[in-house]
């Protein structure tokens, strides 16, 4: 089949990696895949059409914010209107230039939603499919009520009129089945097993020295530093108790985001500078080596729609490296961690629960190794190649 994915982010963004990895899996099974995407910094993009691992990628517009380096740049209202209009027209033109058997939207949002209605339904007179991997209203930083209403409209409309819906969590599966959507396929996030392998000891030692981590007990957080949907402040609040109990512990925070400066200021104000390292934004290919420095990783969450709707890439990637995970018992996390066999599940929204679990695991090497081994085993079931087969299931019998 010829399959075109319409995504509203770059292929290196977290959700973008979901679609790129699934596209690789589809190509491996003999399908032709083109991704129409929005670039995080289109002005600096030197190549807007290219092939990567057999997948054809077209950048047809700019994302809603410029994301280059550790801090995103938000556009003013008029510039944002121009950016979104250009992105929508670029997406429509991309569909017109991409005759396909299947059109599949990555996220139900306005830009690709308008393109689907205008170019796929109206001009091509074909059906389209939608992937829901988040709660778009609560998972994005929408500062005005009208923005929330717009996102809610498209999030509610597109899955209901699509030929089929793919989701990455059982929470979203139940939501859309309950709304009367007939064809829903559950496809969680996965891991590039070839990429997430422990680096050689010499490289790890050099990296540990460069970051000043020799002789330190390392705990890692990987992700976007945006408190709207990633409550890293819970982890930092817990870290005060961890340092008191384990003085040689260091928290390695891998990633950038709009709240990086405020988090750095908080760490300095609490006197934790020697116990917290911020890497800033790093390329995805650098993440495995950084994460492999850690004895465990932590995914702090609240029990809210954002956490219930997410299938965190970071959990499975950490497990594949043999780095145990500590996270809140929310949504699919319990199933991902094999009900506690591959990591610790704690009460959400609780710095105390996070701190207790981190301290206990830092002080119990036997348990840490047992969780690490179970995590590596569990991660094998989340290979993208296998998940691509589940993705194809939503197209039958329409394809």
Helix content bin: 40-55%
Number of domains: 2
Q: Approximately what portion of the residues adopt beta-strand conformation?
A: 15-25%
C-alpha geometry: globular
For the record, give the distance between the C-alpha atoms at the N and C termini, rounded to a whole number.
8 Å
Give me the CATH architecture of the largest domain, please.
3-Layer(aba) Sandwich
**Largest sheet, described in full?**
8 strands, mixed
For the record, the CATH class of the largest domain is: Alpha Beta
- Spatial ordering of strands, largest sheet: 3-4-2-1-7-8-9-10
**Count of alpha/pi helices:** 15
CATH superfamily of the largest domain: Glycogen Phosphorylase B
* Mean model confidence by pLDDT: 94
Under CATH, the topology of the largest domain can be stated as Rossmann fold
User: What would you call the structural class?
Assistant: alpha/beta
Contiguous low-pLDDT stretches (5 residues minimum) are none
Radius of gyration: 21 Å
- How many strands? 16
Record keyword descriptors for this entry:
globular, 399 residues, Rossmann fold, eight-stranded mixed β-sheet, alpha/beta, six-stranded parallel β-sheet
General description of the model:
By secondary structure, this protein is an alpha/beta fold. It has two domains: 199 residues, Glycogen Phosphorylase B (Rossmann fold, 3-Layer(aba) Sandwich), CATH 3.40.50; 182 residues, 3-Layer(aba) Sandwich (Rossmann fold), CATH 3.40.50. The protein is 42% helix and 19% strand. It contains 15 helices and 16 strands. It has an eight-stranded mixed sheet with strand order 3-4-2-1-7-8-9-10, with helices on both faces. Strands 13-12-11-14-15-16 form a six-stranded parallel sheet, sandwiched between helices. A two-stranded antiparallel ribbon has the order 5-6. Strand 11, helix 7 and strand 12 form a beta-alpha-beta unit. Helix 11 packs across helix 14. It is globular and about 65 Å long. The termini are close together. The mean pLDDT is 94.
């Amino acid at each position: 089949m010829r399959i075109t994915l319409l995504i509203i982010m770059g292929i290196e963004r977290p959700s973008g990696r979901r679609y790129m990895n699934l596209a690789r899996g589809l190509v491996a099974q003999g399908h032709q895949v083109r991704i129409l995407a929005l670039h995080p910094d289109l002005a600096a993009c030197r190549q807007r059409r290219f092939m990567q691992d057999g997948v054809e990628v077209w950048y047809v517009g700019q994302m809603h914010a410029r994301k280059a380096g550790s801090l995103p740049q938000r556009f003013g209202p008029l510039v944002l209107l121009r950016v979104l209009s250009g992105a929508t027209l670029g997406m429509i033109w991309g569909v017109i230039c991409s005759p396909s058997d299947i059109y599949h939207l990555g996220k139900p949002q306005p830009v690709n939603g308008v393109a689907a209605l205008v170019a796929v339904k109206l001009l091509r007179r074909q059906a389209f499919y939608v992937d829901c991997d988040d709660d778009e209203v609560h998972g994005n930083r929408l500062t005005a009520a009208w923005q929330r209403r717009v996102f809610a409209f498209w999030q509610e409309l597109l899955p209901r009129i699509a030929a089929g819906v793919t989701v990455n969590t059982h929470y979203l599966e139940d939501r859309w089945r309950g709304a009367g959507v007939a064809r829903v396929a559950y496809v969680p996030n996965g891991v590039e097993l070839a990429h997430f392998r422990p680096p050689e000891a010499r490289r790890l030692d050099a990296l540990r020295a460069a970051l000043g981590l020799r002789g330190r007990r390392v705990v890692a957080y990987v992700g976007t530093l945006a408190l709207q949907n990633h409550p890293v402040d819970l982890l930092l609040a817990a870290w005060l108790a961890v340092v008191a109990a384990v003085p040689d512990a260091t928290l390695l925070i891998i990633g950038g985001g709009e709240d990086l400066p405020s988090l750095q200021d908080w760490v300095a104000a609490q006197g934790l500078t020697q116990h917290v390292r911020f890497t800033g934004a790093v390329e995805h290919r650098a993440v495995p080596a950084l994460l492999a420095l850690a004895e465990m990783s932590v995914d702090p969450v609240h029990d809210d729609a954002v956490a219930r709707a997410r299938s965190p890439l970071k959990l499975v990637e950490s497990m594949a490296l043999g780095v145990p995970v500590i996270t809140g018992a929310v949504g699919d996390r319990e199933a991902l961690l094999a009900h506690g066999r591959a990591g610790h599940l704690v009460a959400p929204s609780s710095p105390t629960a996070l701190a207790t679990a981190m301290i206990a695991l830092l002080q119990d090497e036997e348990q840490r190794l047992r969780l690490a081994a179970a995590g590596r085993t569990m991660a094998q079931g989340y290979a993208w190649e296998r998940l691509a087969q589940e993705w194809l299931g939503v197209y039958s019998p329409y394809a």
